[in-house]
């Protein structure tokens, strides 16, 4: 149903309320919760959305069509999003708008250095910020006419998507993760916590991340985040 609505909106003329009508946005994002926020922002803006949850999936999409906008999360399960940004930025005569996306404080500098046109700081919830970043990166002659700043509406993703993310983390934690997996889990969990406005979970993920980098032992940190994830899943989708 969501794609049907998006395709219907994309068949209409662009307007001040839906300035991205006619555009396809490829979101390269491994979090279902973060991607659900992007889906709502695209829907409100009139754009179609396509999702890739890893670099491999993104390359499959890009072999078959050229989206107007690509939004790339920097931390992906099979590599860094900066590599994809650099690859897209190097394409000759490219017209695609490329935005990096991350909750890390140094994410913007890394994305822009790789060749991104702009950056979205997580959590991505503001309709005005979302639209302004895309429209501001477009060549002036390609921007739809009559566009003005929208009211700063905030989207609220479906908490069931958050539950899916937490379930994925619980499964990863149960597989005796190695160093590479722990690094991914801590970054992924920190992003989930940021989007869910859960400072306790974010602090625990950050502590695990620091222990991993310092080589001081990750056992206690893994046990702590595993317990917190179990509690949140037991509480249900809303917590």
Strand order of the largest sheet: 2-1-3-6-7
Q: What's the gyration radius in Å?
A: 18 Å
Quick one: CATH superfamily of the largest domain? Answer: Response regulator
Report how far the terminal alpha carbons are from each other. 27 Å
Average of per-residue pLDDT values: 90
Query: The biggest beta sheet, please?
Result: 5 strands, parallel
**Top-tier CATH class of the largest domain:** Alpha Beta
The CATH architecture assignment of the largest domain turns out to be 3-Layer(aba) Sandwich
Q: Provide the β-strand percentage band.
A: 5-15%
The SS-based structural class is alpha/beta
Helical residue percent? 40-55%
Number of strands: 7
What is the count of DSSP helices, taking H or I runs of 4+ residues?
10
How many separate domains make up the residues?
A: 2
Shape: globular
Residue stretches low in confidence (pLDDT < 50, at least 5 long) are none
- What is the string of helix and strand elements? HEHEHEEEHEHEHHHHH
CATH overall fold name of the largest domain:
Rossmann fold
